[in-house]
Amino acid sequence: MPYNRVFFKILRHLLLAAAAIIMAFPFYWLVMSALKTNDEIWQFPPALWPDTPLWSNFVDAWQAAPFAQYLFNSIFVAGSIVVIQVINSGMMAYALTHMKFRLKGAMTMMILIGYMVPATAVYLPGYIILGKLQLLDSYGGLILSNCVSVFSIFLIRQAFLQVNHELVEAGQIDGASHMRILWTILVPLTRSSFAVLALITFIDQYNNYFWPMLITRNPDLQLISAGLRSFFVEGGAYGLKWPLIMAASAFTIAPLLVLFLLTQKLIIQSVNLTAGSSKG
Amino acid sequence: MKRFKLAGDLKAFLFTLPALAPLTLFWFIPLGYVVYLSFMEWDFMSPDKLFVGLDNYRYLFQNPAFYQSLRVTLWFCLGSVIPSMTLGLLLALLLGGQGKGGALYRTMMFAPWVTPTVAVSIVWSWIYEPEVGLANSMLNLIGLDGVGWLKDPNWALLGVLIMTVWKSAGWCMIFYLIAIRNVPADLLEAADLDGANRWRKFRSVTLPLISPTTFFLVIVQLIAAIQTYDQINILTQGGPSGSTRTLLYLYYQSAFTSFQIGEASSVAVTIIFGCGALSLIAFMAGRKTVHYH
């Protein structure tokens, strides 16, 4: 029996290590390819690491396209969306959980239906509407069209449902307005859900590609993914600049990997909350 | 009294407005608009739209490209959802009782999900490079011939699928990890006392207890699979010869490349109904088999 135990333990570690290495290998490969010379990268069989790491590839790639602008656009747009979603999800969830009004059931239903509609399916009409509003090719369009998320509303609604309604009533008796109750009582109590909302929304929006690419033609407004893609298509179609493309991919991924490493616990906790909000 | 109630309604309405206004503008109106457009013939440019009734649908259902992309979508769904979930469950089971060392494994496996799809797709397109790419040199290493990967209609879909599974398996794993931790220990101990082996315990205790997670993952992953765009756009752009063109990609191409707005809209409506039907089927199947406790 103990033999069996030890055997299983070793086997388990071996399997896990193998799986982890396979999963992480593309990232290793990315960095190594970014450090190779153009000749090295076309060697076959490929070398596992470069002879002398060519760190200048990163500088060259950074200067080859307006990546600083792209990065700023992504962070600015994602950050603005986070702020707006915190506000509108909080208010909507408050109304749905702690206010009484007619059509509350209908409103909840509507949001549920919104949850089921595949967002990408309405990109074409969304594009036409955005055009009619003169919001194509603008920060306003990028931010406004993403400023509400059914998922965020659900997440906060779920958190507010756990808060005892008596706290809200106590606030009302003290004469506090709904706004005051929401921001000084409910939000502090459910701050971990708001942190999750902020983090998930930021990651999603930073990574967003399809919709922002559709609604912006101006290169100055491109988000990092679309910018990286244009760089890839211009430089990479004939395989001329692979090391630079790899370097550019690396610094696109890096901020998110760092953010992920810093906030891992919270992200994994968010899964707990997501799984919870899917039940109710 | 009635006035008070009305005032309350108004206040609540004002609270919902910041979310409701954009939701209506960018979600509900487009939903109605796309149905309307699917009955029209329009090329984006001309000022007038022509009402053609069900012609777009009739044309769509006679179009072999539609059936091809339907097949691709089906394979894409099966080929991404089943492996991602199986792999996720296996990894979660392996990781189940790990302490500190487990955290490192977990981080490494979950990282692909967090990173931008476009950037990692570019990495994968280099891995799939037929001449000197990593994928083919691995194949050579074990004595197999390299394949064309993204340039070969027989292999391109598999290439996109491998990358997709790589990206989402860790995500499924996290969900399963939490579900497995929530399985009550006394149930497993009771099974131990009954002399059940590992497989038997998994089969009759763990698996039924984590079925709500399985059910949730199936729906979320299916809907995500139907909406996949980024990696297809970077890796294959629907090609070669339509072998990776999903319904969504067909929709996008007919709208923004061939400007057949009516036809594209009819594809969109099909996708929306497809997702609705899938959710409904999953929901009904879930009611029968999912075990809530």
TrEMBL record, chain A:
Superkingdom of origin: Bacteria
GO cellular component terms listed in the entry, alphabetical order: plasma membrane
Main location: membrane
Transmembrane segments: 12-31, 75-97, 109-130, 142-160, 181-203, 242-262
Family matches, as CDD domains: TM_PBP2
Keywords, comma-separated and alphabetical: Cell membrane, Membrane, Transmembrane, Transmembrane helix, Transport
Gene3D superfamilies, A to Z: MetI-like
Membrane topology of the entry: Multi-pass membrane protein
InterPro entries xref list: MetI-like (IPR000515), MetI-like_sf (IPR035906)
PANTHER family noted in UniProt: ABC TRANSPORTER PERMEASE PROTEIN MG189-RELATED, ABC TRANSPORTER PERMEASE PROTEIN MG189-RELATED-RELATED
Family as reported in the entry's similarity comment: Belongs to the binding-protein-dependent transport system permease family.
Protein name: Carbohydrate ABC transporter permease
Organismal lineage: Bacteria, Bacillati, Bacillota, Bacilli, Bacillales
TrEMBL record, chain B:
Major subcellular site: membrane
GO BP terms in the entry: transmembrane transport
Membrane topology: Multi-pass membrane protein
Organism domain of life: Bacteria
Location of the ABC transmembrane type-1 domain: 70-282
Subcellular location per the Swiss-Prot or TrEMBL entry: Cell membrane
Name recorded for this polypeptide: Sugar ABC transporter permease
